[in-house]
């Protein structure tokens, strides 16, 4: 880590900056010229229908996927290439950005208890602070609203909402600057979803972490983001402050998405016609 | 009987030969369902009706019993399920039908559309075979006639006959769900049971499928029971709504009145916890805790443990379904509904 980078880190208020990302799979342009930035402690939404390139973008940001061209900067450092081999670069990247998926079950070891998951994460990332781990585990559990009973449980003994809390706690354990949430509340019932969304809002206030919040639900976007980009067929069709984009959409596709949200007096036939006109 | 909403009178005990026009297409009365290993009934006395041409939404969070309620209409129940009560389709009780009557019901009278079209269709068989199978096997319809009908139903859902020769893998999710709807229409059913039919689809595709279901109702007079966890969708499409919690109907009534002025604290809480497009950013009014598991026995109101207004009475006495004063077609199962009316209605306005 050089002095200039450190200075950059301190000076910039942008924790994540993505510019000109491209990624194709065969003939499919999954991501096409995507650029956006996330302020420190900010919350940026990515909305779009399935196949619009949201997940591919997220995977490039966290280093699970590479871009064909384009740049990803995290805390001012160029993170465009693949994550370097070996322990140090991987841990460094993990401290910059963590990801929470729609189905946390798939990312949790079925044989490790909640307490065990957090302990392993802390041992990996902060071996020098070993004496502090138990205190930190208690703090994390408290932060995500899990009790002593859940701490001893295995993933399959938990509900969907509780598992998502575990996934969030594990991500927070690493103290990343950015948390990427890919449809993280999509599988939850509304009452549980509301609990998790509130939890995420509180955590952002407390820790100053930034969110890249991927969702297909415009109500969720309104609730938890400050800025939003709308993606379609791999491209950004509209971007701006969330309230502005939702209240005064400029692109016909954004309007179509908004009109498609069911509400009394909703006109499904009109939406279907508008959709065909846009194809 | 007292739980039957006014305007949809119960059928007579003696089943008429030709369905009485007053007979609801679907009438569920006092349905109780027990499953092995559960500490309480999974369905604990459900009353629900759907009239011809009516679209009725059944809403609630996962595990509340929506799917089992709709599956009971075709008697597609888990092994070991024990039922009480009646589930009448066009006046005939499904729960006591013999195998032949049941086959007729499933082929011609009532059809089901599930959430995931890909799970409903064998990926190795052509769409044409999938569409005509039931009629060929159960109604002894010659293949040519079955295919002719398939072409007409595909046309009704906006698909050409080209898909007859295609495989499921060649179609998008939205197109496949239309194929599933066409399949449901093959037997000219009086009742369609749609269990989260658009949950796996994108919003714009959802609009298309919902518009299509509305057309079919206008065209064929089909009654529709639409199961969904999406309150906004229920409000947008249905004439009447049933809100279910832990195997019981919490409240029911016309969609507009119910969502504007909920009379059960659970309905109001659900509405408030839903992130709203027109609501300001910020914290949501979450409902603490989660629905009771089937391993828990329940006394009193099933929602009492999570309800901000619960009293000792709520924890001890099961609230009966009572009419809402001044609103003849509404029923609510809450001891305190009357005195909470203003508070509950006020809590859901976002403006
Ligand atoms: N590993 C992959 N191989 C081939 N195609 C892919 C792969 N990942 C994504 N795609 C394609 O890229 C496009 C964008 O996908 P994705 O980023 O998952 O969109 P979203 O998350 O918005 O649904 C889709 O057409 C998808 O099929
Ligand atoms: N085949 C089954 N065997 C055992 N329990 C079941 C079965 N199907 C559903 N259940 C249980 O019955 C309850 C109601 O389920 P369901 O009707 O699927 O709810 P919903 O459709 O509202 O999510 C749930 O607790 C569920 O776990
Ligand atoms: Mg995705
Ligand atoms: Mg269900």
TrEMBL record, chain A:
InterPro entries: AAA+_ATPase, ABC_transp_ATP-bind, ABC_transporter-like_ATP-bd, ABC_transporter-like_CS, Oligopep_ABC_C, P-loop_NTPase. One of its GO terms (molecular function) is ATP binding. Residues 16-258 form the ABC transporter domain. It holds the Pfam family ABC_tran. GO terms for biological process: peptide transport; transmembrane transport. The keyword Transit peptide does not apply. Signal peptide: none annotated. SUPFAM superfamilies: P-loop containing nucleoside triphosphate hydrolases. Keywords: ATP-binding, Nucleotide-binding, Transport. Belongs to the ABC transporter superfamily. This is Oligopeptide/dipeptide transporter, C-terminal region. It comes from Streptacidiphilus jiangxiensis.
TrEMBL record, chain B:
GO terms for biological process: peptide transport. It is a peripheral membrane protein. Keywords: ATP-binding, Cell membrane, Membrane, Nucleotide-binding, Transport. CDD domains: ABC_NikE_OppD_transporters. It is found in: Cell membrane. Residues 26-271 form the ABC transporter domain. Residues 1-17 have a biased composition (Low complexity). InterPro entries: AAA+_ATPase, ABC_Ni/Peptide_Import, ABC_transporter-like_ATP-bd, ABC_transporter-like_CS, Oligopep_ABC_C, P-loop_NTPase. Gene3D superfamilies: P-loop containing nucleotide triphosphate hydrolases. Its main location: membrane. One of its GO terms (molecular function) is ATP binding. It comes from the Bacteria. GO terms for cellular component: plasma membrane. Residues 1-24 are annotated as: Disordered. The keyword Manganese does not apply. SMART domains: AAA. The keyword Cell membrane applies. Belongs to the ABC transporter superfamily. PANTHER family: DIPEPTIDE TRANSPORT ATP-BINDING PROTEIN DPPD (PTHR43297:SF2), OLIGOPEPTIDE TRANSPORT ATP-BINDING PROTEIN APPD (PTHR43297). This is Oligopeptide/dipeptide ABC transporter, ATP-binding protein, C-terminal domain-containing protein. It comes from Streptacidiphilus jiangxiensis. The lineage of its organism: Bacteria, Bacillati, Actinomycetota, Actinomycetes, Kitasatosporales.
